[in-house]
Amino acid sequence: MTIPFRRAALAAMACALALPALAETAPESTDPIVINGGEVELQTAAPAPEHLDGALDEIYSGWLFRDPDTQTMQTDDFENPGMIFVDQGMDEWNMVEGEAGKSCASCHEDVSESMKGVRATTPKVNKDGALWSVEDYVNDCRTSRMQAEALDWNGDRMKNLTALISMQSRGMPMDVAIDGAAQPFWEQGKEMYYTRYGQLELACSNCHEDHYGDWIRADHLSQGQTNGFPVYRLKDAGLVSQHNRFRGCIRDTRAETFPIGSDEFRALELYVASRGNGLPVEGVSVRH
Amino acid sequence: MPRHAAFTAAAALVAMASAMPLAAETAPQDVAYDDIGAIAEPLSETAGNPEEGAKIYADKGTGNCVACHAISARTDAEFQGNIGPSLDGAGDRWSVEQLRGIVADAKRTFPESMMPSMYKTAGYVRPGDAFTGKAGTEPLPPLLNAQQIEDVVAYIATLKE
């Protein structure tokens, strides 16, 4: 009795080895996101960065994996519900607060000049050797230069500011540094990306590298790229920060997650950003 | 009864409960897998019920197999996943012993499989307390209990082409 089944199992395993159950499915089309009738065009695919060593052939925007209604919302800045928060971020930018009597604008003046490119190259190692996200730079200005209180990483005021700052890089390719001082952080993030966390023992790579294009029930898996962040998420009816997204994905593996704003998430943010090097910053994207 | 005595008694009960599961159930740490990952003996005394198994298969809170697998006959499930292979005909391809092994701990049949181990309680990286995001303490309750594994196995065994 057991012998034929054993053979069947061996045959199945041999077959699994030759043809692993990894079914990355390239999107049907890689049309660009055409915004405001052609004023802005964002590419949705790019060659995979070299450091991925062939793990992916091409990198894709999460936009390609969303349903047509959600996609359409991102093609017009009036329809994009995230843009309202960019406007609120502008109010925040000009708001004087703290003992020093200053606003962001007091030092940085025109956001469209001073913040251009920041989102595309962050997280990065600061002058003291620490890895900083955009949120860290914002809070450093607030506490040391404005003498105001730090903003909550995941609070609305911070998300509005990061949305405003992100918009100033819209269309610029993601280009975070991974060598030199950044390398140890990048290695740490990479290790996390491939760690199978929690009782479900799932790594980021299981879903977003091995199975993008596949469906987990009603969820169409993307490559989990971060060039669209902060995203306006229809499910939450609000902006979602990168660390909050990471927290949700790790929690869904029935794991103890890491705190938003932790060093671990900064490292993961750098590594995931580097997987998207070459994809344009989308400013504020719309996802479901 | 002094406080520490009550505590000790309670701790002893807990220890007993985890050391001696319900009569005639094989605890996760005691399951004997053979060299291809199959489990010869049923995990519970009561034979698996395929109808219960069919429910557990599609239930988000328990098996949630449907998140990753599809079965053509399951027109009741609105969305079916395609991470794993279609289970049509799985009852022809695998013996009951092998199905039991796959459902209990698929990684012993398919090394490195993405399929979660349903009857395993320890050895995790950052184990959580269900979906709270908070830390959990090993041994965690297994994703499915012994009877639920038997029920699901009985159901999958009915899938013949």
TrEMBL record, chain A:
<keyword id="KW-0249">Electron transport</keyword>
<keyword id="KW-0813">Transport</keyword>
<keyword id="KW-0732">Signal</keyword>
<feature type="signal peptide">
    <location>
        <begin position="1"/>
        <end position="23"/>
    </location>
</feature>
<dbReference type="Pfam" id="PF21342">
    <property type="entry name" value="SoxA-TsdA_cyt-c"/>
</dbReference>
<dbReference type="InterPro" id="IPR036909">
    <property type="entry name" value="Cyt_c-like_dom_sf"/>
</dbReference>
<keyword id="KW-0408">Iron</keyword>
<comment type="function">
    <text>C-type diheme cytochrome, which is part of the SoxAX cytochrome complex involved in sulfur oxidation. The SoxAX complex catalyzes the formation of a heterodisulfide bond between the conserved cysteine residue on a sulfur carrier SoxYZ complex subunit SoxY and thiosulfate or other inorganic sulfur substrates. This leads to the liberation of two electrons, which may be transferred from the SoxAX complex to another cytochrome c that then channels them into the respiratory electron transport chain. Some electrons may be used for reductive CO(2) fixation.</text>
</comment>
<keyword id="KW-0808">Transferase</keyword>
<protein>
    <recommendedName>
        <fullName>SoxAX cytochrome complex subunit A</fullName>
        <ecNumber>2.8.5.2</ecNumber>
    </recommendedName>
</protein>
<keyword id="KW-0479">Metal-binding</keyword>
<comment type="similarity">
    <text>Belongs to the SoxA family.</text>
</comment>
<keyword id="KW-0574">Periplasm</keyword>
<comment type="subunit">
    <text>Heterodimer of SoxA and SoxX.</text>
</comment>
<keyword id="KW-0349">Heme</keyword>
<dbReference type="InterPro" id="IPR025710">
    <property type="entry name" value="SoxA"/>
</dbReference>
<dbReference type="InterPro" id="IPR009056">
    <property type="entry name" value="Cyt_c-like_dom"/>
</dbReference>
<feature type="domain" description="Cytochrome c">
    <location>
        <begin position="88"/>
        <end position="174"/>
    </location>
</feature>
